Amino acid sequence: MAGIEIAAELSWPAAGVARIKLTRRDTHNTLTSELLETLDRLFDEAASSKARVLIVTGSGKTFCGGAHIKLFTDPASPLYRNARAIRDDYVKPIIRVFSRLREAPFVTVAAINGFALGGGCELALSCDFRLMADTARIGLTETRLGALAAAGGVQSLARVVGRAKALEMALLGDQLTAADAKAAGLATAVHPAAELDDAALAFAKRLLLCSPISVAETKRALCRCETAAPDEADRIALDAVLAASAGAEWWEGMAAFAERRPAAFRMEDG
Questions:
Q1: What gap in Å lies between CA 114 and CA 198, rounded to an integer?
Q2: I need a labelling partner for 159 at 20 to 30 A (CA). Which of 206, 219, 220, 233 fits?
Q3: Helix, strand, coil percentages for the chain (3-state, nearest 5)
Q4: What does the angle CA 20 – CA 25 – CA 28 come to, to the nearest 5 degrees?
Q5: Could you tell me if 46 and 54 are in contact, meaning their C-beta atoms sit under 8 angstroms apart?
Q6: Which residues partner with 160 through β-bridges?
Q7: Catalytic positions, please?
């Protein structure tokens, strides 16, 4: 629509690989209601189009700048000095949208091109993998603002980097370099900034070699097992085996191995 700047765009750099690019570089890709609504819609579009991998990236110098601070400082904003509205009308919707990345049956990859601070770090944490440009910075900076990383930071960071490192990051509010993030286990890989897009696509194509059903069931089982007791974790794993072996991909993979040929996997309907 004329006069309305698009918050994010969906493209398909390869068959089965969707890319969502945050495009509001003028506002550092902050988490406005417009961006959240756009992400929700684009996630639907990627899923309905049978994406097998989804790459999320930013534009300009920013991956995602986190909270839109003007919502808290403008007296005309419904969030101004309204703790309940901040919780229920702002943070809760962010959690819901970000959770869609964690719960998606396809693989999600954050290609962190620039600053990923506060909610931007939480957006990256919601993805399965995080590839960073060597010039990028990432961190939970909320404590520097008197805030709290409740859109995924306090829930997920310790699972990725361990409790001690998570406390260091979340309480100090520091920005980590890409090298430090890689050393902490937060970043999967670091690439020269000019090569990040190509590296993310190459990484996505590696995932296309894997069975979509196996990927979906493995991802779901891993997430459920994180908080499960050992016996319950075994049941989750067995249920995943049942779901995977009931589909054609299991038998295609076994036949391909026996016949010494590449497996021809495809996303099954449903």
A1: 16
A2: 206
A3: 50, 15, 30
A4: 100
A5: yes
A6: none
A7: 122, 142
Distance CA 102, CA 108 (A): 8
pLDDT digits (tens, 9 = 90+) for 77-131: 999 999 999 999 999 999 999 999 999 999 999 999 999 999 999 999 999 999 9
pLDDT digits (tens, 9 = 90+) for 56-90: 999 999 999 999 999 999 999 999 999 999 999 99
Rounded CA-CA distance 236/159 in Å is 19
Distance CA 128, CA 28 (A): 23
The answer for residues whose C-beta is within 8 angstroms of residue 28's C-beta and 6 or more apart is 60, 61, 62, 64, 65, 115
> What is the Cα–Cα distance from 132 to 192, expressed in whole angstroms?
8
Q: Is 4 exposed, middle or buried (0-12, 13-18, 19+ CB in 10 A)?
A: exposed
